[in-house]
Fold:
Amino acid sequence: MAPGKKNARRLGAHIVFVDESGFLLIPPTKRTWAPRGKTPVLLHRLRHDRLSAISGVSVSPVRGHLSLYFKLYPHNISQQEVLSFLRHLIRHIPGHIIILWDRWATHRGKLVREYAGRHPRLHLEYLPAYAPDLNPDEGVWSQLKSSLANGRPDDIRDLEGHLLACLADLRSSQPKLRACVHRSQLPLF
Structure:
């Protein structure tokens, strides 16, 4: 047996909660404060440029260490992008990987099923229908959209830079990643 396979068995399986989201140049808004009688006004350009993102919150089987993996795309996510993300996970996570995600058609597509069939250490599982509250990755999107709220990126590069900075900050913070897990309603955690 190859040394890598022996270590993979000893380590157990990583659980990765995966989800996708989209980010527009039109900023999300949230409640803020202002002096009485002075309603805040948010000016922005009416452009519908967008970035699509896929990410996964990973739970290590040994220490329960959390990690964040992500990719950004300038177009809608299709099976090709999902495959690219799965390849990224296979390259960076040792041992068996259990993917938990929603029942979006792209996740159940033929290309994704064939790819999983060729990689025996990749296991695809589906969350119950209409249960985003069970996916800790939803907390990633919540934190990112909150950081963008009431802001105004000038162009798609500005939006991408802001998203990458926020994702890097989130990736390096165990308390913020744990907040994503605790925000979900998973009984396991």
Remarks:
- Residues 1-10 have pLDDT under 50 and may be disordered.
- Residues 156-171 form the longest helix (16 residues).
- The longest strand covers residues 13-24.
